[in-house]
Amino acid sequence: MTVLRLPRPAGGRDGVAPGPRTAALALPLLWATQRAAVACLPWIGRNDPKAADGAAVAALRHGLAGLPGRARVVIGEGEKDDAPMLYQGEVLGSGKGPACDLAVDPLEGTRLCARGEDGAVSVVAAAPPDALFATAGWYMEKLVVGPAAAGTVSLGRPVEENLEALAGGLGKPVRDLVVGVQDRPRHLDLIDRIRRAGAAVALFGDGDVMASLRVLLPGGDLDSLMGIGGAPEGVISACAVRLLGGDMQGRLAPQSDRERASINGEKAARPGVTLGLDDLVADGDCVFVATSVTGGSLLARPQAGPSGVRTASFVSTSEHPCLLVEGEMPAAGAG
Ligand code: VTB
Atom 10 (ligand 1): residue with closest C-alpha? Predict the structure, then answer.
């Protein structure tokens, strides 16, 4: 296994004090996402998102079963897309080791995988029990910025003001800003306003967890991520934001009556409630692991190697926030 350590991003918040920690779970979590990614490979470009997701869920669940400690899934995905899921409340792990809560997306970018497009990953975030924002919501409005702009923007302000503040924080004019926005009709007004304010918009089809990394990592090509995407992906991204010293706000943004009913009663569902980074992930002792399924600018597409499939993963812990890890896994079906 090769580990390449990227430079720690400058600025942002401090890590956490050393001690027995969730970080100890990074390797077993990595092993689980590597398994899930390899399980998806036969389904890339087959136009069968459910089968791809099913393969990822089964492999990730199997991988997580061996986690030391007691791991409770508090954020799963599946209900929104009517897909197979690691369900909320499911308890995994062998019992010995730090207890943790998990936010999982066995195949983030299911559509990308089905279409054979770049950007799909298998991703898991872990944090101490009760540290992750657990919601039944499916959609969340998100605002992500990198370490240099932490504290400058707010979902409570108009986008034009945020762009000004972001430009100030980054020390460059608004016209040099590039904002990642998911290419959806619900964002037409947002896209128009960003462009009219003078900034550029980088549209992406799916996968806002990896789009968040493009904001957070040193040398990333985005200055911010804005718009409404999945709520589970929001919580997973928040762990990366916290570990990499960036900043994020979220706001539940139900897109249907069914979703509105499902979050009815949640405190965060009250109109005007904005979740800060500490609300989304209340502890800096978290772990974020993503293994590439279809490749992309940060992580290479898995490749057949001498004794299996070579995988590329991004791993972040409070001690080591920027690790690129290459591993070799047996091909799907080979054990
Ligand atoms: C969002 C986004 C994800 O799917 O959940 C999106 O956060 C779904 O949006 O990264 P739509 O329902 O509008 O398609 C992803 O892009 C991929 O899971």
Answer: 207
**Which residues lie across from 105 on neighbouring strands?**
123
Report the side by side order of strands in the sheet with 247-252: 200-204, 178-182, 224-230, 139-145, 247-252
pLDDT tens by residue, 244-283: 999 999 999 999 999 999 999 999 988 779 999 999 999 9
CATH code of 139-280, in short, is 3.40.190.90
- The beta strands (E) that lie in the chain are given as 2-5, 71-75, 91-92, 100-108, 121-127, 139-145, 178-182, 200-204, 224-230, 247-252, 287-292, 303-305, 308-317, 323-329
Residue whose CA is closest, atom 4 of ligand 1? 206
- Tell which atom from ligand 1 comes closest to the C-alpha of 182: 16
The owner of tokens 């605002």 is 143
Residues 2-129+285-329, CATH architecture: 2-Layer Sandwich (3.30)
Q: State the distance from the centre of ligand 1 to the C-alpha of 217, rounded, in angstroms.
A: 21
Query: Of the residues 77, 79, 182, which should be mutated to test ligand 1's pocket, given the most ligand atoms within 8 Å of the CB?
Result: 182
Find, among 36, 128, 138, 31, the residue nearest to 88 by Cα. Answer: 138
pTM summary value? 0.93
**pLDDT tens column, 173-209:** 999 999 999 999 999 999 999 999 999 999 999 999 9
| Residue 44 tokens, joined | 């890339």
- The number of the ligand 1 atom at minimal distance from the alpha carbon of 80 is 12
Q: Is there a contact between 121 and 293 (Cβ–Cβ < 8 Å)?
A: yes
Smallest CA separation from ligand 1 atom 16, residue: 206
171 CA → ligand 1 middle, Å: 31
Closest residue CA from atom 18 of ligand 1: 109
Q: Quote the tokens at residue 311.
A: 């995988």
Tokens of 103: 């936010």
- Ligand 1 centroid–CA 208 distance in Å is 7
Q: Domain boundaries in the chain?
A: 2-129+285-329, 139-280
